[in-house]
Write a structure and sequence with these properties.
The complex is a heterodimer of chains A (111) and B (118).
Chain A lengths: L4 E3 L2 E5 L4 E6 L6 E7 L5 E8 L4 E4 L2 E6 L4 E6 L8 E8 L6 E3 L3 E6 L1
Parallel strand pairs in A: 2-11
Antiparallel strand pairs in A: 1-3, 3-8, 4-5, 4-9, 6-7, 7-8, 9-10, 9-11
Chain B lengths: L3 E4 L2 E4 L5 E7 L5 E8 L3 E8 L6 E2 L6 E5 L5 E5 L8 E8 L12 E3 L3 E5 L1
Parallel strand pairs in B: 2-11
Antiparallel strand pairs in B: 1-3, 3-8, 4-5, 4-9, 5-6, 7-8, 9-10, 9-11
The chains are: A mainly beta (111), B mainly beta (118).
Chain lengths: 111, 118
Amino acid sequence: SQQGEEDPQALSIQEGENATMNCSYKTSINNLQWYRQNSGRGLVHLILIRSNEREKHSGRLRVTLDTSKKSSSLLITASRAADTASYFCATPASGTYKYIFGTGTRLKVLA
Amino acid sequence: NAGVTQTPKFQVLKTGQSMTLQCAQDMNHNSMYWYRQDPGMGLRLIYYSASEGTTDKGEVPNGYNVSRLNKREFSLRLESAAPSQTSVYFCASRTGAGLAGGRGDTQYFGPGTRLTVL
């Protein structure tokens, strides 16, 4: 399979706690993206980090990228019930128009 | 701006029936994609269109055909539906005109079509 892998597959936390999910990929990349999917909906783009960046912030989101380990992490700080969703990483397949999605982390934030 | 729209939202087919899933985007994007999502499998690419007039196979193209009717519309056709095609289908379009990994790499997704084949 060309798919990236994410862990954990599922995560359940209390409101106010931080949530961390990880993504590993297999090939060299120019960037890595994170998407959120609410139940029954399409994916929504959250943040893109380029290969020459090590860390990027957007609101309560913090993304890190370690190209030597071919891995990325997404941290959601001070989580809210509305953050309950599945989170996917995606990487471009070099030399193509295609993207490779991870299998996703299902996050549940308990109020 | 409607973004990416898909029709229908739900569909039930019998084995052997055919249908076309419609997708349209109003963001003037060049590249469009069809994915299927199955439990625990993430998204798998069926077909994509890098630009108007071109289409290419993705990871799981068997049993499907596509048409890039114009820049806005990209349809997915199941000629003879099989139970293995029961899935949620998502259409997406992408900013940027070049290869994946360049500038404008954000994909915009439609709400999905939930297809059941009996």
